[in-house]
Design goal:
With about 300 residues, this protein is of the alpha+beta class. The protein contains seven helices and 17 strands. The strands form five sheets. A six-stranded antiparallel β-sheet has the order 12-13-17-16-15-14. The model has no long low-confidence stretch (mean pLDDT about 85).
Length: about 300
């Protein structure tokens, strides 16, 4: 059993420090049937420090932190022993404190600058602008534009070795409100399969809206974060669209809201998943921010 100090810095959807009122931070013990409240604090300032006393982490215990405010989606974070581990040289050291940077977004936020999204990608030198035109981007609905920008950011900031996943992309075949259909270099599939940062996951069938697309049975999910991880589902073979010159896989790419088990799953359902539809890209935006990933657009607070 140990005392742990947690510092929370709360931001609004505009990426500025939270200036609202009425926000409440609650920490629950997800290892108990009653999910007992361990701490409850009103936030009168965008930063708060709490001490959680006598926490056990010896058998994989998990604790859930949420921040609620009227008219907003909750900001959520799971607390595990790994939350307090830091790399110091060649050693992993457990510290008594940690910091979470969370975002709380309105239930109906407005994208602030989606119109400049494509130019922002071009300014970054994003690989996607080589395979997807500005005209095609402008033809997308706002939800599709947000999905493209969110998943682009996730691919850009997720690495296998020294290479970002985005560097493997060779074409964009389709954009949906919750996923991208891509072509990638064939070597990516083997690299993902070998990577210790990815775990096997359930694949996806051929999408009904695209009858010419293949099924995506071979799937892996990144494992770094508690939820909001990239999932890559590959076609069975290369040349998925019958083009002889192609030596690539088709990939169904999405950011997955994984449900946990037992009380953790119940907490995730109540605080992350049910309060935001899986296709709601504003929820994904907040999760990416908590991971230190910034899409190239903003939301209104």
């Amino acid at each position: 059993m140990a005392d742990k100090r947690v510092a929370v810095i709360l931001y609004g959807a505009d990426r500025e420090l939270w200036e609202g009122s009425g926000a409440t931070l609650v920490v629950r013990d997800l290892n108990r049937d009653d999910m007992r409240v361990l701490a409850r604090h009103k936030l009168n300032h965008p930063t708060v420090d709490i001490t959680l006393r006598d926490l056990a982490f010896d058998t994989g215990q998990v604790y859930g932190l949420t921040i609620d405010a009227k008219g907003h989606r909750p900001a959520s974070q799971l607390i595990r022993r790994s939350s307090f581990l830091r790399q110091e040289g060649d050693r992993r050291v457990e510290r008594p404190d940690t910091i979470f940077r969370l975002m709380i977004v309105p239930k109906r936020p407005t994208p602030l600058d989606l119109g400049e999204g494509y130019q922002n990608l071009a300014a970054l030198g994003s690989t996607l602008t080589r395979f997807y035109s500005e005209h095609d981007y402008e033809e997308l609905e706002p939800r599709q534009q947000m999905a493209l920008l969110n998943i682009e950011a996730k691919l850009r900031e997720t690495y296998i070795g020294h290479d970002a996943l985005l560097s493997y992309v060779t074409a964009v075949r389709g954009v949906e409100p919750d996923r991208l259909f891509l072509l990638v270099e064939s070597r990516l599939k083997e690299a993902v399969d070998r990577s210790a940062d990815f775990a096997a996951a359930a694949g996806h069938p051929a999408p009904p809206a695209h009858p010419d697309f293949p099924a995506y049975p071979d799937s892996w999910k990144h494992t770094r974060f508690e939820f909001g991880n990239i999932q890559l589902s590959f076609s069975r073979t290369t040349k998925p669209f019958g083009v002889p010159a192609q030596d690539c896989y088709a990939v169904d790419t999405d950011i997955d809201l994984a449900r946990g088990l037992g009380h953790v799953g119940e907490w995730l359902d109540n605080n992350v998943i049910r309060r935001g539809m899986k296709t709601d890209q504003t929820l994904m935006y907040a999760l990416l921010f908590a991971q230190g990933i910034l899409p190239v657009y903003r939301l209104t607070q």
